[in-house]
Design a protein that fits this description.
Elements: H1 5-39, H2 43-69, H3 88-115, H4 119-149, H5 151-157
Length: 178
């Protein structure tokens, strides 16, 4: 016997809240890393980290809005802990793992959405996976530079500005000027 509509919605709300919880943790992690990189005078790295955190804030809000549409209550709890005091290479290794695990989880969540006849939420996860993939590619690239070039790479970035100005995030570019 097929489950009723409310049971199907509840399963989708559950994965949306799991996703929101992941995003809330990523926000805290990436902002902590942003401050750390800025304090170490790696402005270019700090600026990108801040923009990615802003993307994660948007993702958390997108999940919350979808949860509300489905009649649920968005979680305020974050999954995981924030790694403090990381050395620069460890920051990017940590973030590669976070993004990779998030993409894997969201692909599983898409299956739950499809099993419960919610293509709208499945498409939301697909869009966010695209953005998480951009974050992952960036983190992998920086991690690779740090492994191959080490302090030479960091010396190139030292003293660069960290001000991002008004921004829509790392993935969503500023609107074109008229």
């Amino acid at each position: 016997m097929a489950e009723n509509k409310e049971d199907r919605k509840a399963k989708v709300i559950e994965v949306l809240n799991k996703a929101r919880s992941r995003e809330l943790n990523a926000i805290h992690q990436y902002m902590n890393q942003h401050y750390s990189l800025s304090d170490k005078d790696y402005g270019e790295l700090a600026a990108s980290m801040k923009l990615i955190a802003i993307d994660e804030m948007r993702h958390a809000e997108d999940f919350a809005e979808r949860i509300k549409v489905l009649g649920g209550e968005p979680t305020i709890h974050r999954e995981g802990t924030v790694e403090m005091g990381q050395e620069v290479p460890a920051i990017y290794e940590c973030d590669v793992d976070m993004e990779d695990n998030t993409i894997a989880a969201y692909n599983e969540f898409i299956k739950v959405c499809n099993e419960n006849a919610d293509v709208v939420t499945a498409r939301l996860f697909e869009r966010i996976i695209d953005e998480e993939q951009a974050h992952l590619s960036y983190y992998e690239n920086i991690s690779r530079h740090l492994k191959t070039l080490g302090d030479t790479y960091l010396a190139k970035i030292a003293g660069t500005p960290s001000d991002t100005g008004p921004s829509k995030g790392f993935v969503t570019p500023e609107p074109a000027a008229d």
